[in-house]
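The data are quoted verbatim here:
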Amino acid sequence: MVKIKDLARDLRKKQTPEEKRLWFLIKDRQLGYKFRRQVWIDQYCVDFCCFEKRLVLELDGSPHRNPMTKSGDLSRTKYLESQGFTVLRFWNGEMTSEKKVINQIKDALNNPSSVSRLNVKQKRLTSSPARGEEERK
C-alpha cells in the first residue's frame, strides 16, 4: 500500500517545469506567507497551499482540457471551497507571464474578497485555452 507521504514526496520529485518555476517564486515566504507544495488536504493532493491564508494554487496542463478532468477539477474546487479554501487555477502556459501570475496570487493573499481573484477562479473553471495556447504564452 502506497503511503500518502510517499506519494506526495514522489510528486515533489516529478514536478513539471512550470511547477518548479512557481515554487521558486513562492517558497521561503517570498510573498510574505509560507507555501507548501504537493500537500494533502483530505483526499486531494494540491500543487501548492498557503494554510495561513487558506489559498490553494493549481497549475494545469493539457490533460485538464478533457471534459472528465474538468468535471473532477470542478468537484475538487467546490470541495476545497467548502472547507474554507480559495482555489486559484492557472494554465501551465500562463507561467510565461509569471509577473501576472504572481500579481494575482498577491492579490488573493492580500485582498481575500477581491473581485479579480473571483473572476480568475470562475474563468479558469469554465473555459480552456485553444489547443496549444498554453504552450505559446
Observations:
- The first strand starts at residue 36 and ends at 41.
- The chain has a mean pLDDT of 79.
- DSSP finds six helices and four strands in the chain.
- Strands lie at 36-41, 44-50, 55-60, 86-91.
